[in-house]
Amino acid sequence: MGKYKIEYDRENCIGAGTCTAVCPKNWELSAEDGKADFHQDEFDEGEDYDCNMEAAKVCPVNVIHIIDKKTGKKII
Ligand code: SF4
User: 26, 48 in Cβ contact below 8 A?
Assistant: First the structure.
């Protein structure tokens, strides 16, 4: 559980791997289809937040988003 959650449009991931480069703690490329998968879908402020924000920012097709669970607002 956490204050923020990941919204991820896996279908449109192109397997660029940039998210896994900047946030290897939570993102890795699937050995099966080369698309990214994440381990933890909820987190609070701090290291995990920063890591996932970075992943969302660098994704070239903008398929990673972070939602504030309380307000429902899309932060990125
Ligand atoms: S950066 Fe975006 S497109 Fe690239 S692997 Fe990660 S989610 Fe997929």
Answer: yes
Alpha-carbon gap, residue 28 to 20, rounded angstroms: 5
Q: Please state, in angstroms and as integers, the Cα–Cα distance from residue 57 to each residue in 2, 19, 32, 35, 61, following that order.
A: 20, 9, 25, 17, 10
Angstrom distance (rounded) from CA 66 to CA 5: 6
Nearest CA to ligand 1 atom 4: 16
Q: Is the CB of 21 under 6 A from ligand 1?
A: no
pTM, full prediction = 0.96
34 secondary structure, DSSP code: S
Q: Which domains does the chain have, with CATH numbers?
A: 4-68 (3.30.70.20)
Residue-wise pLDDT tens digits, 38-56: 999 999 999 999 999 999 9
Q: Is 64 in the pocket of ligand 1 (CB under 6 A)?
A: yes
